[in-house]
Amino acid sequence: MTSKLWPHVRYLAALALWCSACQHVSAPAPNSAPAASPPAAPAGPGAHDAGALAPVMTLTTLDGATIDLAKLYGTKPVYLKFWATWCIPCREQMPKFKRIYDAIGDRVNVIAVNDGFNDEPAAVRAFRDQNGLRMPIVVDDGRLAGALDLQVTVQHVVIGRDARIVYADYKDGDELDQALQKVIAAPEPGSAAVGRRPAVDRPAFRRGEVVTGVDARTIDGAAVSLGRSPDGRPRAVVFFSTWSETYLQTHFPERAAACRRVREEVEQLAARGGIAWLGIAGGPWPSVEDVVEYKAKTNTKLPLVLDGNGALFRAFGIRDIPTVALLDRDGRLVRMVGPDDRDLAAAVHALGGR
Asked: Between the N and C ends of the chain, which has fewer C-beta atoms within 10 Å?
C-alpha cells in the first residue's frame, strides 16, 4: 500500500487513539443564551454520531453569500461534504458528489465544505471552475469541523430535517445513498428543529499576546505548558502534519517541499541551543502511531505532541503547515513563520537563538 493512501486507510484507528494524547486549552464560558437558543455542547451522543444534534453556525460561501444552518434545519435535510483540493479520495469522489447534487439538490441542502487546511480560496475557486461544481462551497475556518469533532477528510455528514445527524463517514457508497434517501423520505418534524450551539473556543492568540492556559503532553508523557518555558528560554513551536512531505507531493508539491525544507532547517536551528523547541502534529488523520513513526523515521530531537482534537492548532489559528510560532521569554507571541517565509533562521536569532 502506498504511503500516499496510508493516512486514509488508517484514520479510523487514529480516532480511537486520540484519548491517549489529550491536551487542554482553557476557554471562556459561552455567553448565556435566551431560552429559544440551542443547547450548549456536548449532550447525548458524540458530536458527529448518528442521533446527535447538528451544530448551528453561520457560514459564508466563496461567492459571499451567507448560509445560516439554523434556518436550514426544519425545512430540508442538509448534506455537508468535507473535502480538500489536495485530498486524493476527495477528488476521486467528486464526480459522484456532483451527480448527487444534480439529482437531489432541490430536495436537500447540499453544501461542499472545503476544510480550509492548506487550501486558499483562490485554489478552491480554481478547483470549482475546473470541475464544474455548482453547489454552494464554503471554506471552513476550523469552527464547523471542530463543532462536529472531525479531524479527517474526506467526510460526509447527512442531517435530517429534525437537525439530527443520520450519517457521518468517509464512504460515499450504498450507506450514504441510503442515508440521503432516509432523510428525504422522513416526515417533517412535529416541532421546530433546533440544532446545537457549539462550545466557544477562545479567539486564537495574536501577535503581542501572552500565551496562557494552553497545556499539552508529549508522546513520551511529559507535561508541557505552551506559554513561558520553565527555564525562561524563548520558545519555538512547530505545527506540522506527519504525512505532509509525501502525501502532498501529488497535488501540492510546493507545500510538500516547504514541509521538508522547514523540518530540516528546524533540526539545524534546534541543535544550536538557546531556544526551547516543541513540535505539534495535527491536521487531518492524526494518530499517536503516526507521530511515533515520524519521530523514528526523521530522527527528530524535538519533543512531539499529538493535537488529536485540533484544539492546539485552533488556539494559534493554524490553517497552513508548516507554521512556526515564536514566543519570547515572557511567553508572548512574537511571530508566526509560515510555509512561504524564508527567514526562519533570522527570526529565531532575533528571538535569542544561536
From this structure: N
